Amino acid sequence: MTNEIQTIFNRIAPVYDQLNDWLSLGQHRIWKEMAVKWSAAKSGDTALDLCCGSGDLALRLARRVGATGQVYGVDFSPNLLEIASLRSHWQYPQPAINWIEADVLNLPFDDDQFDAATMGYGLRNVKDISRSLQELYRVLKPGAKAAILDFHRPSNLQLRSFQQWYLDAFVVPVANYLGLKEEYAYISPSLDRFPIGKEQIELAHQVGFAVATHYPIANGMMGVLVVKKNE
Q1: How far apart, in whole angstroms, are the C-alpha atoms of residue 16 and residue 59?
Q2: Of 220, 228, 230, 225, which Cα lies nearest the Cα of 34?
Q3: Which among 15, 63, 75, 116 has the fewest CB atoms less than 10 Å away?
């Protein structure tokens, strides 16, 4: 499944940001800013963005940690990392962001390395959510926070129906127009499999996070899991 998802993201890389805009009705920028705020990253911090895609959250983290901080963006798609690197050079964050091709289930970092972390639209696609959270826990410093943003199936049946209609009637046809219908067909099944908020909290507690809170946003069609490592 990992190679399958990796291939998908390599192929959608050129239109990834445009599709995110359409998929979220243009709201993903606001939600990403919320995630960065909830990560509590501050000036001078060493911060991590997992499943960084084309670099949106990593660039936001870079602005927050400033010239004395450091940001690492990790993704398993070399095509998306290439786009992230180009965007980074264009926006000139200082110091430069470290773009790393790696698997979030086996991070190439030391224990207790990061002051803050984010993940946007990645947890839903990893093949082992618990393992991913375990690795995140390992690389965070004691007392550090992470904010994990993703799409969800809302519990409200009417909203769930609306979400499915929107995916079927708008997102898939747009993806089809761009020649990416098969790539975007994975979204619905990935939403069906994804643990709901309280299940995510339970998984976070199981790997050791002292505090875990799930904030539903966009009428429950989106959510941010905020976790904190023990002091």
Answers
A1: 16
A2: 225
A3: 63
